[in-house]
Specification:
By secondary structure, the protein is of the alpha+beta class. Helices cover 50% and strands 12% of the residues.
């Protein structure tokens, strides 16, 4: 198993067989079914390639930034390894035809925002100077056409829109791997309450005790619905938040939300505890 993948397993405290599912939970994407599923195969191929990169060569956000640069939607210098990662993602997706692209897009719970981004990338490729309001309307129209047509009736631009949207979805997942493999969480002993809707833990450092709470977020914006029906997604998805309170008399506290899953919120809280203990931030 590649170095980054091993560190990600350690930091998330999951066995290798469950790492992909955990990364999907952190990215807010549904985990693909077990077994030889096409989404699991594509995810695994990309993660294995990027997971072999040594520490410090790639940073969280690098691959998404390189994806924007490759799509013509960002003018910036990006590290060569991140561009290499994007080329790996593209090679994984470029050989797929419309039917396979649709199956992959449906399996990743592609949203209209994803499609609109893909449409903007396709239009930018055709007109590098694009970027005004009319181009935004054109991207919206193209994305709408993709959503309303069956794959057998997609034209070239429709197919390329889905392809480009998949580039970004895979880049998001890769950046989650980079973030997790570079993170330094403080392992906490979580107790579960309210049938899994609340988690509590205690942490201590430098003479200070912290009470840590992870629970469903209040007044969080709803998660974007997938364009195509995904059988394993609930009708309403839950957003999560963490809250850290000091054990001192003044009970200073800080909270952060939304997170797409309880695992994502717990991992972020553990990273925040590490930062507090190191004096890099305060409540």
């Amino acid at each position: 198993m590649a170095g980054r993948l091993t560190r990600a397993c350690t930091n998330l405290r999951v066995p290798p067989a469950h790492l992909l599912d955990a990364l999907c939970a952190l990215a807010g994407r549904p985990a693909p079914p077990r077994g030889p599923h096409p989404v699991r195969r594509v995810y695994g191929r990309v993660l294995q390639t990027v997971g072999s990169s040594p520490p410090g060569v790639l940073e969280p956000g690098d691959v998404c930034a390189a994806t924007y640069v490759r799509a013509g939607l960002l003018n910036a210098e990006v590290p060569a390894p991140s561009d290499t990662a994007v080329l790996c993602i593209r090679r994984t997706v470029d050989d797929l035809g419309p039917a396979d692209l649709w199956e992959l897009a449906r399996g990743t719970a592609m949203t209209r925002d994803d499609l609109s981004w893909g449409a903007a990338a396709v239009l930018a490729e055709g007109d590098p100077g694009a970027g005004d309001l009319l181009d935004g309307l054109a991207a919206h129209t193209l994305a709408q056409e993709v959503a309303e047509r069956s794959p057998c009736h997609w034209g070239r631009d429709h197919t390329e829109t889905v392809r480009a949207a998949l580039y970004r979805s895979l880049a998001d997942l890769v950046d989650v791997l980079l973030e997790v493999s570079e993170s330094t969480p403080t392992p906490l002993d979580w107790t579960v309450h309210d049938n899994g809707r609340r988690y509590a833990a205690t942490a201590a450092g430098e003479g200070v005790t912290y009470d840590v709470l992870v629970r469903t977020a209040q007044n969080a914006p709803p998660a974007a619905a997938p364009v195509w029906h995904h059988p394993s997604l609930p009708a309403a998805r839950t957003a999560w938040q963490w809250r850290i309170m000091s054990g001192s008399a003044d009970r200073a506290s800080h909270s952060c939300a939304p997170f797409p899953s309880a695992l994502a919120a717990r991992h972020a809280a553990e990273c925040a505890i590490t930062a507090l203990a190191a004096g890099r931030c305060g409540l």
